[in-house]
Amino acid sequence: LVLRREIYARRVAIHGDSHHDTIQAGTSLAISLNSLGLWEHGKRLARDQLLPVARRSLGADNDLTLEINLNLANALQEDSDHTHDDLVEAETIMQDVVRRRRRVFG
């Protein structure tokens, strides 16, 4: 986890937050946070930092942007403290990702 944080921080410093490599490093960090059960940190990183930047720089239909969405949806539903609203949000995100992938990738 320390290494993933360091890699993400270095990518931000070198490339800025909107570079594909930076967003990929941030996605890896969010996945690691979620894998360790640090759901709030992973969700916050995805929702507040990665998704807005990915949508703006890569586009809403980009595969990496869609991956971040799916990771957020998974974190929302896997968090043992999830609420009904979290589950509804997760389902909405997943449906949107499926719709976009079908439209973009066939």
Task: Give the topology.
Blueprint (H helix, E strand, L loop, with lengths): L1 H14 L4 H16 L3 H19 L5 H16 L5 H22 L1
Helix pairs in contact: 1-2, 2-3, 2-4, 3-4, 4-5
Kindly describe this structure.
The protein is mostly helical and 106 residues long. The chain has helices at residues 2-15, 20-35, 39-57, 63-78, 84-105. Helix 2 (20-35) runs antiparallel to helix 3.
What's this entry about, in short?
With 106 residues, this protein is mainly α. Helices cover 82% and strands 0% of the residues. The longest helix is centred in the C-terminal third of the chain and has 22 residues, at 84-105.
- Beta content comes to under 5%
Number of helices: 5
Poorly predicted runs are: none
Per DSSP E runs of 2 or more residues, the count of β-strands stands at 0
What is the H/E string? HHHHH
Mean pLDDT: 96
Largest sheet: none
Measured as a percent range, the helix fraction is over 70%
Termini separation: 36 Å
Rg from Cα: 14 Å
Shape, please?
Answer: flat
Structural class: mainly alpha
Which features would summarize this protein structure in a list?
5 helices
